Amino acid sequence: MAASTPISPATTPSRTISKLGIAAVIVTVVLWASAFVGIRAVGPSFSPGSLTLGRLVVAAVALGFVALPRLKRWPRGREWLPILAYGVMWFAGYNLALNAAEHMLDAGTSAMLINVSPILIAVLAGVVLKEGFPRWLIIGSLVAFGGVALIALGSGQRSTADVAGVLLCLLAAVLAAVSVIVQKPVLRTFSAAQATWFGIMVGAVCCLPWAGQLVAEVQAAPLPATLGLVYLGIFPTAIAFTTWAYALSLIEAGKLAATTYLVPGTTILISWAVLKEIPTIWGLVGGVICLVGVGLTRRRSPKGSRSR
Predict the structure, then answer these.
(1) Fewer CB in 10 Å around end: N or C, the chain?
(2) What pLDDT, on the 0 to 100 scale, is given for residue 66?
(3) For the chain, what is the HEC assignment?
């Protein structure tokens, strides 16, 4: 996370890329999974807009200590366009939509809907980034999505989904997918920490209309909720989005996106440990299927099998 210069796959030994990429993916999956638990924990104290702004402000301060000291230059001219795009869509729009959706949907339904995103990323990466459509990526993604569906069905709650909640989750998934594709070229010029910090700052500016509401809610919130907000800003936002960006600079977008199918299963385990929510047998089976699906995406397709 502290590296200031993007590591190019062309100049880094493949074994080193593999180890660094795997470590970054593990950190991202665990911290993003913990965010679902954190959002549920602080949800009663913070509205979607103030929660998003609070996370981004904390993240901007924390990550600024890492990104700014080694920043050699600021983006210039057209370099700002993709940064503005994923800053608005991912750091502001995605978080706002997800926070609002979780007030309407149960956790299982939300997880299933959000995990449309890896499939969208795989399709967009194949078309826009010319990564193609490897056979095992498609097969593994479908298997992993089936695991996510089982987790949702076995969430222990009847779906309380209404139309607005479903649409918000699908919107969040689309915004995340497009943002990944837009962000990847930026990582050729700026480090993961810097690219993430730029996006966080853009998102924070977009959420400034909720500043007054955030101040009022922080004053009224119990200390554990405020500490939860700080946790969400530092760990799932500042750290996890940076490790994601770092992994994205090393791994194809489609293959990296498939690893996020592990988030719902990891969320179940964290909820079990933190919130004492005992997972159902369907949740456990779904988690295993997700692991199998992600494993399948790592298989290499025979040469010539990549289609456009």
Answers:
(1) C
(2) 94
(3) CCCCCCCCCCCCCHHHHHHHHHHHHHHHHHHHHHHHHHHHHHCCCCCHHHHHHHHHHHHHHHHHHHHCCCCCCCCCHHHHHHHHHHHHHHHHHHHHHHHHHCCCCCHHHHHHHHCCHHHHHHHHHHHCCCCCCCHHHHHHHHHHHHHHHHHHHCCCCCCCCCHHHHHHHHHHHHHHHHHHHHHHHHCCCCCHHHHHHHHHHHHHHHCHHHHHHHHHHHHHCCHHHHHHHHHHHHHHHHHHHHHHHHHHCCCCHHHHHHHHHHHHHHHHHHHHHHCCCCCCHHHHHHHHHHHHHHHHHCCCCCCCCCCC
Residue 133 dihedral angles phi and psi, to the nearest 5°: -130, 75
Among 10-14, 22-26, 54-58, 96-100, which stretch is predicted with the lowest mean pLDDT?
Answer: 10-14
> Residues in the chain, how many?
308
Spatial distance between the Cα atoms of 25 and 10, rounded to a whole number of angstroms: 20
Using the predicted structure, report yes or no on whether residue 279 has a pLDDT greater than 70. no
Alpha-carbon distance 268 to 165, whole Å?
21
Who's near 155: CB < 8 A, 6+ residues apart? 106, 107, 108, 109, 111, 280, 283
Query: Which of 40, 274, 36, 279 has its CA nearest to residue 150?
Result: 279
147 or 10: which leads in pLDDT: 147
**pLDDT number for residue 1:** 39
Tell me what pLDDT residue 111 has: 61
pLDDT at 204 over 90: yes
Q: Backbone dihedral region of 10: left (phi > 0), alpha (psi from -120 to 50 degrees) or beta? A: alpha
Q: pTM above 0.90?
A: no
CA 2 – CA 187 distance, rounded (Å) = 15
CA–CA distance, 243 with 246 (Å, rounded to integer)? 5
